[in-house]
Design brief:
The chain is of the alpha+beta class. The protein contains three helices and two strands.
Length: 82
């Protein structure tokens, strides 16, 4: 989070609320939330997530044809995660 945003109570409340919501989410289509943390020296807040080894969504979509069954399977998987 940008340092100038940490002074805004509303922004910090939203950041903490988002982190809390992520704690309750668990699905193979979602990155796993780990912890909300603050870097002690710089005072920067950040959210730690699990590492996903593989292609990003843009690369996957770029390698699929617009009418392939893989697009439908990917859309179902993404919708299931939502």
């Amino acid at each position: 989070m940008l340092p100038e945003l940490t002074a805004n109570e509303k922004v910090m409340a939203m950041f903490h609320k988002e982190a809390k919501a992520l704690e309750d989410l668990s699905h193979p289509a979602l990155v796993q939330y780990r912890v909300l943390a603050k870097e002690p020296t710089l005072g920067l807040y950040y959210i730690v997530t699990g590492f996903i080894d593989g292609k990003n969504l843009a690369d996957v979509l770029g390698s699929l044809g617009p009418t392939t069954p893989e697009v439908m399977a990917l859309a179902r998987r993404l919708a299931d995660g939502l």
